[in-house]
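Hey, I was hoping to borrow your eyes for a little while. I've been puzzling over a protein and I'd love to understand its fold better. The fold is given in discrete form, as structure tokens running alongside the sequence. I'd be grateful if you could look everything over and explain what you see. No rush at all, and the record is pasted right below.
>
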Amino acid sequence: MNLHLTGHHLQITPAIRDHVANKLERITTHFDHVIDINVIMTVEKLQHKVEATVHLSGKEIFCETHDEDMYVAIDHLVGKLDRAVIKHKEKNLSHRHDGVPLKHRAAEE
């Protein structure tokens, strides 16, 4: 997984870089086929905006969040990305197994 961080009106410190990298580890535990992640952090007056594009095999997922604290915005962004990656993974699994997701198939048996 390649991680690209960009800051607009913001200096990306090693602490921010480590925080983003540690939080994005959660995405790779759910889905192994992550090619790269582009994260853009912007500061506009009192709002911190974080947006990310995740390149998966066959799809791109884009999410963005706004908050007054950069670390909170990063945490919210990772939560959104995590839900989107899990949804993509479940769709792929359901297409391969007769149109019934594996979690629903286990409940029926």
